[in-house]
Amino acid sequence: MDGSAVPVGGADGHEGADRSGQRADRIFKALAWGAGLLIFAALAAVTLFLVLRALPAFTGDPSERSSALESLSGGRSSSFLTYVGPLLFGTVLIAGLALLLAFPVSVGIALFITYYAPRRLASALSAVIDLLAAIPSVIYGLWGALLLVPAITGFWSWLSRWLGWIPLFAGPVAAPARSAATVALVLAVMIVPIITSVGRDIFAQAPRLQREAALALGATKWETIRLAVLPFGRAGLISASMLGLGRALGETMAVLMILSPGLTYSVRLLRASANQTIAANIAAQFPEADSMGVATLVATGLVLFAITFLVNYAARRITAKGGDQ
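^ Phosphate transport system permease protein, sequence as received from the core. Prediction below:
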């Protein structure tokens, strides 16, 4: 014997392990591809459903379409564009105002949790933020309708009295204040946890070496955040904002329970019966709509779907450009 030893299993064992690993890799790759394609399939299915169900609102009998639109709008509209226009305007107005109110508050909370709060307080605040993000929208609607609306009417009246010369705050303010401003405030409270949660995780990942270098050069804590943390988290904050905006655009129950609806292009945020959103209008009109009315409502939902898609697409482009810089 030459004294050399052959390992147990020999080359056949290694080849079997290689084949097993390759088989597992192929299975995992197939599952990953399937999961990715499932997203496209779901998006295509939703789009196809909306298009097919909304088609009668554009190609059906003109008299039936006109009758359905007059019924849905209370006689104020006889064409789809004049019907969906104020709804789209109200949706974008309320959601945009909610984002405008929520974004600075969310960034401030996220920075406080990450860099200023003691560890125990930061842990408690993080748990509260995560809990607020999980609260159903109907609970926010109940809070807004039963508590916030009566409580904030006096403040809106005061604001209109002193700043009524600005069109946004022009009166009169009805009691209770079921206006776009009140709804936007409730939606802002709803999306603050979403933006804060994402922003907190992004700020925590800011490069430690950059922060320490800024501090070593004599920068204050705020200067360090402004120079090293905020630029790093810019793309992530845009994505977080779009997540919050997406929820505000599609919110139904809270808007339905608070807002006094109207079909106008009014920017007077404190007036009731001036604006309405697409989602809340669908929920309010759907139970009593006939077949053509349902098709019309689905068509407005298709418009909301397209707007949401475009907003997210724009956010992705902005995020990609921010990452390339």
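The chain has a mean pLDDT of 87.
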